[in-house]
Amino acid sequence: MGPPSGLQPGDLAALIDQMMADAAVDSALRRGPVPAVLDTDCVRTGLHYQLKTGAPPASVTTARDGMIRLFMEYDTLTEAIARLPRFADQFGVPVAELRRMFDEDWLPHVQIVRVPDELRQLDPRAAAVRDVDPNDYAAAALAALLSPCIMLTRDRHHFAALGVRTASQGVDAVMALIDISVGEVRVQMALAVPAAPARLAIAGGKWACERIGPVAFGAILLMTAAGGIWWYSRQPAERRERIKDAAGTAGKFYMAKYAAAAQAVSQAQADLRGCLVPSPAQRGVTSAVLRGLAVAPESLSAQQLADLLAPSVRPKVTNLRAFLRANDAMFGQVRRGGYELGLRYEL
Predict the structure, then answer these.
(1) How confident is the model at residue 191 (pLDDT cuts 50, 70, 90)?
(2) What is the pLDDT of residues 139-178, one digit of tens each?
(3) Can you tell me the distance from the alpha carbon of 31 to that of 236, in angstroms, rounded to the nearest whole number?
(4) Looking at the domain assignment, is residue 133 inside a domain?
(5) What is the end-to-end Cα distance of the chain in Å, rounded?
(6) Are the C-beta atoms of residues 192 and 7 closer than 8 Å to each other?
(7) Residues 6+ apart with CB under 8 A from 39
(8) Residue 344 lies in a domain
(9) What would the DSSP string read from start to end of 169-194?
């Protein structure tokens, strides 16, 4: 059903309420940071990009801004550091320059996770990647455990088992997240302009009630409304029609702005979903624990983490606490009893 040609009393408020509801549904599709796993291949291309532009790539800046959460398996990190001399030779720059960029601009935004071998084997997709290239096993295992997530690599052949189809898929996912963020701002702007007079009126009404009392303010409001109706009724028919047309045109304009912004957000969300490493066919307890911490906005205690997990994958709190304590190479305790996935790399 298309928009009305004119706005009747109360239509604008109902329209704003519906727009707000639609925006809330769109935003619910993306809660918290999206986990992303960094591969050595992406480190190389990202450092090359930074040398050319003078700024870190979007994968790093979006992690800095909290849109994604960057993780790197410990073996992948050591491989990337070991390859810095080769990269420096290829780029024609000193190794020290690459190391400085990596240490200062990248690693502060990366959580390092050392996944034990027995946990790497939990998802058969990781084993399929290992069979193609053992060097990619660590990154593939971490991505499989955290999925759905972004796999930041250009190596679509080695990571095909994780659903990586194109060399740009990881970067495309990051750009889709940026598009979602920009689109949501535009949605809110489209909502804010027509809502501003109503909000101003409400704020003014509250102020007036406090100053002169609700009864007096109500009387003034009724007189103002009556005056407006009387003024409108006294206008010639042609002018009344122009007023209705102007109101209808304004309503159509803001509805079109909102619809375009909401459509852009919806498309970006669809693009993001298509670029992610898919969820495992059946998520186990370990995967649920790792992913729960990966997307949590802050550190969690064993009890808080257990409360967030689905009943089918919820371990006993005592067992979960013991698991977190026993795997201090995967889980950092940033406060007493408060855990997060991964540790910061010590320079």
Answers:
(1) low
(2) 999 999 999 999 999 999 999 999 999 999 999 999 999 8
(3) 53
(4) yes
(5) 60
(6) no
(7) 76, 136, 139, 151, 152, 153, 155, 159
(8) yes
(9) HHHHHHHHHHHHHHHHHHHHHHHHHH
Sequence-distant (≥ 6) Cβ neighbours of residue 309 within 8 angstroms: 288, 289, 292, 315
- Using a 10 angstrom Cβ sphere, with 0-12 exposed, 13-18 middle and 19 or more buried, the burial of residue 115 is buried
The beta-strand segments (E) located in the chain are 34-38, 68-73, 110-113, 150-152, 331-335, 338-341
Distance CA 202, CA 189 (A): 19
Q: Which tokens hold the place of 345? A: 């790399």
pLDDT (tens digit, 9 = 90+) per residue, 193-207?
554 454 444 444 454
Give the residue from 124, 113, 216 showing the smallest Cα distance to 161.
124
Cis peptide before 214 (omega within 30 of 0): no
Three-state DSSP at 35 gives strand
Residue 312 lies in a domain: yes
Last residue of a domain, one of 225, 258, 275: 275
Q: Which of 242, 275, 308 is the last residue of a domain?
A: 275
Token pair, residue 37, equals 């796993």
Distance of CA 70 to the CA centre of its chain: 12
| pLDDT tens digits along 96-119 | 999 999 999 999 999 999 999 999
- Quote the domain boundaries for residue 231: 11-27+181-275
Counting every residue written for the chain, the total comes to 347
Where b means 16+ CB within 10 Å and e means fewer, 295-319 reads: bbeebbbbebbbeebeeebbbeeee
